[in-house]
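Researcher: Let's do a round of design. I'm pasting the structure tokens now; please hold your answer until I've finished.
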């Protein structure tokens, strides 16, 4: 008998057909035979039909996970990421997080200088981040990845598939038992493939307790009883191990070489979480700084210029800066402080400062001329700076040096990297020139103000003054108000220098306040 079987197989292998179609049929017949040996009677190979038992199998899962579907529909993935990390924070981290919330930062800023608030935020961020050691990060990422796989599985459209077995079925209405029919297998081939993609990605283990504790922490209840879910996992594992769905797909599609596509992905959420916390805290601090700066700037502008609006420069202004900002190329970085300086030089430089300088420097008697030299040189510099600002501004006209370059290159900036680079380089040069004008003007204000302060102190020593020896005489030219003129100009200079210190330039030497 053994010899007979041997020769039978030998002759069968020698004379078997090499036709691919015949080979495929043999493979499909073998798959159908293997499927029939399983306990799952989901498919009738002779008629290529899917049986009601498959619908019942999916319906039983659908009833279990339906509440979870609703939960995931009302909770975004970013919110789940945040909730996962929040649930895993240490007590120390929770305390630090409370200190850097937007509400806490704003509350502190009401009574504490903003630089101290910023330092406190920085320290709390550091302590908060250090608590995330590698072990804690791995635990959080693993928990979220399991949650996401569970979410993907629960988000599978069971209802869409089940409607094909019973078109009278209503979504999430489990009061009326469905009546599943036998259907053509081709109707559910893609549904089965999509199910495999999410179902076989699940971990078929018992390590689900932490996830269901997380759900309880987030929502107060488990969307699916943990014990019931573990039974679902056990059933899925059995189905997976026997390759039942894969065999059905192969038979329906007549593709014996079909390979499943598993939807598996890994996310690392801790770094993004920390980055968002840091950004929110730092943005809150910056917003407070900006509000305080704007409030301070508005107050200084009111003290300097009163109700008179400050005129923008003709070309170096916000309106023309917008074209660069829209394309994220850069901006006219110093248009505000430069326009304030230009206005100040016109309003006070050519009037109050000139009138005072004519009295002190021309009519004043300085025993030591070197003491008057810094003030004199600063004054003569200030006389030219208004024109220098105008000259700089005119270079940005469309027909001028920088303006024509911008006009030519801006239309190409979106598609031409070289044009964009040239614009950025030119903008840096333009802003450097503006910054230098601001720096030079501020320095001359400070030099002039320092000597002016000495003059005010010297005036108080009359008749024993030693800086200027003819105070009474020159006070006559000021109609007896010379000291008031000195104090008024000094205060204006103090205010304009203080105003400049609110803009991002290298710190200038401060003018001492005249009380």
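Researcher: That's everything. Go ahead.
Model: Designed sequence:
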């Amino acid at each position: 008998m053994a010899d007979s079987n041997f020769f039978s197989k030998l002759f069968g292998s020698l004379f078997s057909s090499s036709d691919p179609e015949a080979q495929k049929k043999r493979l499909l017949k073998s798959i159908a035979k293997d499927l029939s040996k399983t306990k799952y009677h989901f498919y009738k190979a002779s008629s290529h039909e899917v049986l009601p038992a498959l619908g019942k199998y999916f319906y039983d899962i659908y009833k279990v996970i339906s509440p979870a579907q609703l939960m995931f529909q009302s909770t975004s993935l970013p919110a789940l990421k945040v909730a996962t990390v929040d649930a895993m924070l240490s007590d120390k981290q929770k305390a630090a997080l409370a200190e850097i919330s937007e509400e806490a930062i704003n509350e502190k800023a009401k009574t504490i200088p903003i630089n101290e608030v910023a330092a406190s935020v920085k320290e709390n961020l550091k302590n908060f981040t250090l608590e995330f050691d590698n072990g804690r990060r791995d635990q959080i990422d693993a928990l979220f990845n399991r949650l996401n796989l569970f979410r993907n599985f629960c988000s599978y459209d069971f209802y869409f598939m089940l409607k094909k077995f019973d078109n009278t079925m209503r979504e999430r209405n489990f009061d009326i038992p469905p009546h599943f029919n036998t259907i053509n297998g081709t109707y559910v081939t893609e549904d089965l493939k999509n199910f495999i993609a999410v179902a076989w990605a699940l971990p078929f283990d018992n390590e689900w307790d932490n996830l269901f504790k997380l759900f309880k922490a987030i929502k107060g209840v488990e969307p699916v009883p943990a014990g019931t879910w573990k039974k679902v996992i056990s059933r899925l594992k059995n189905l997976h191990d026997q390759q039942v769905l894969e065999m059905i797909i192969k038979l329906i599609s007549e593709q014996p070489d079909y390979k499943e596509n598993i939807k598996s992905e890994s996310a690392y959420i801790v770094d993004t979480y920390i980055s968002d916390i840091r950004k929110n805290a730092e943005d809150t601090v910056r917003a407070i700084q900006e509000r305080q700066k704007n409030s301070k700037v508005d107050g200084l502008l009111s003290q300097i210029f009163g109700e008179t609006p400050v005129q923008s420069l003709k070309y170096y202004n916000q309106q023309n800066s917008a074209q660069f900002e829209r394309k994220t190329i850069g901006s006219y970085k110093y248009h505000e402080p430069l326009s304030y300086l230009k206005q100040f030089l016109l309003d006070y430089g050519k009037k109050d400062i000139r009138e005072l300088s004519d009295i002190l420097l021309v009519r004043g008697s300085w025993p030591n001329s070197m003491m008057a030299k810094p003030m004199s040189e600063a004054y003569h510099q200030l006389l030219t700076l208004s024109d220098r600002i105008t000259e700089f501004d005119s270079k940005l006209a469309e027909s001028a040096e920088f303006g024509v370059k911008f006009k030519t290159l801006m239309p190409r900036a979106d598609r031409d990297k070289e044009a964009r680079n040239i614009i950025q380089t030119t903008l840096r040069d333009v802003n450097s020139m503006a910054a230098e004008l601001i720096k030079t003007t501020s320095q001359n204000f400070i030099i002039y103000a320092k000597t002016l302060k000495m003059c005010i102190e010297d005036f108080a020593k009359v008749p024993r003054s030693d800086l200027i020896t003819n105070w009474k005489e020159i006070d006559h030219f000021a109609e007896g108000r010379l000291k008031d003129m000195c104090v008024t100009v000094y205060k204006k200079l103090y205010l304009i220098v203080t105003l400049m210190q609110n803009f991002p330039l290298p710190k200038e030497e401060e003018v001492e306040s005249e009380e």
